[in-house]
Request: fold
Amino acid sequence: RITDGASGGLRVTRSLLYVVEAYELVLEGPSTAVRGKAATFRVRTLDPISKKVLSGYPVKLRVEKDGAPTVSLEATTGATGDAVFPVATPEEGSLGVIAGTAAQGMNTELATSLQVEAPGARVMLTTDKPIYQPGQLIHLRALALNRGGNTPLGATPVTFEIEDGKGNKIFKKTGTTDGYGIASTQFRLGSVLNLGVFKVRVDVGGQLSEKTVTVSHYALPKFKIGVQTSKAWYRAGDELLGTIDADYFFGKPVSGGDVTIEAATLDVGETVFAKIVGKTNADGVFPFSIQLPSTLVGLPLERGNALVVLRSTVLDTAQQEVIKETLVTVSDRGLDMALVPEATQIVPGVENRLDLFLSDPLGAPLAGSAASVSLPGGASVDVTTDEWGHAPIFWLPPSGTTAGSVTVTTTPPGGSQVTETFAFDIQAGAEHVVVRTDKALYETGETVTVDIRASDQGGYVYVDWINGGQTVDMRTLQAQDGVVSFTMTLDTSMMGSNRIEGYVVDADGNVIRSGRTIFVRGGGSLSVDLSTDKPQYEPGDKAELTLSVKDEKGEPTVAALGVQVVDEAVFALVEAKPGLLRTYFELEDMYSEPHYEIHGPRGDLNEVLFSDPEDPAEEAANQTKAQAALAALGRGSITGVSLGSWASVQQQAGVVLAPY
Reply:
């Protein structure tokens, strides 16, 4: 009390929160889980003002089903200020998850929900052909495998359905999958029916898969056309040299055939700029030459390159006509350039690795190419690409870096100097972190080495391991000289995409997060060999096919086989690539049509993830490309729930301290 002469005086008070230790309870974990795969939750206690961890706090985690407790777990926060609780998920449904602590005369609780879903299955539906005529037989086959291990989904109800070109359901048949997760049926099309695009659908235990086939009147071509160009790609104004090669499906050349070639540009429309006519020689070959326009419009979907379509028509002496369209890439720059930071963004205060990839317009690597890289702040570095067109760049951005623009200058073979500027986000916050792994692609049974670098030399790093969108492991580690390392062995439950998220908390309470995505491939892939009793057959002959299946060790193994025998001429009408079972069942939906956060290295992501080079140097190059491709995809999944109690603690503190 301070007397100021007034009768009441002047009273100065200070909150007892400055005397009683203030604390905040934080609950982190997933919002969804897969039945049978344990979900992991982290409960943290920290000082809400200084953000320092608080150890020795008793914390509880209670799990409820329909309001009734099913599990109650207790722990005391350790030196890292947290406790990690695994929660079993034996049944589907909604669970309540409540974290709590009793301290400083207050009971604090945080509640969230966890939705437990069925593991589900992946179903692959195939037909023997992509196109049919009225009266033909459609063969349908479904293969169903459980997610998370790819075990067969056997003894499960199956329903096949077909809708015609006008949406009328014309076929429905039920059945059951066998021990290999396979079910099949067939349906003969009527001679009179609605033509068009038919929908073919299968339902396996509630899991749907659908594809389309075309039903129309058509005549199979008697011969095929091959178009070869002298180069894989061209520059505007170049002379395009090529050959037409026409052969009957039984092997003989189409000699004396009339050839017409139209060359057209593709931009907002199609504009024919050249037309050539001639005849095939005795070998069915016709050489041609076309002068490309001096200027062409680049297409955004082609990364700025232009496209020219060659429409080749061949008419044989029996007046049978076959048309083939071929796309030719025309590039102004003569190269494709990609620069990918390992953390997708620039991380100040920690050494960053940026991967530079130089390739030609179709993705072939540009080896031995020199490039000058200008970094923010005026620094620059000169690099040269290896035989895979890759060059790593190591850079330590100073703390406080705010600009993330990097400029690369290089000169492609036979071209002019090209300069491109890449703009990247800067990791926000007063502290920083970057996550690294020893590889990007793994097989089940291998061990991952995780290396985390933090700007806080002795601070705590919180790590969340997320598989298929679900947090399956949490740990808190203290950095030593700014480094945290640990290992994790990968079992079949970790197949597919795995995101390793590391985060730190700065003095202002900001959560700074970084991560690394890895891909785990299932082991045990099979190889199939096919041999025939004769190299060539005549119509009506009986062909004997021998198929042999071996496991990854080269040993014979028992397996279910699916065989389709189709006239090659069918695929001259509709191009179709054989399905890759491994990519279909192991690749997640987010990767089937990837959406990149930044421009990644050129190439097919499926091919990068599932290629298995025998050459060690090529394997290392593929690992680097995979790491950059996954980094370009961005963050992906992060922890689903993060709740804090400080607001409610302040309210309770006011009630507790009111009498004083």
Remarks:
- The first strand starts at residue 24 and ends at 29.
- The mean pLDDT is 86.
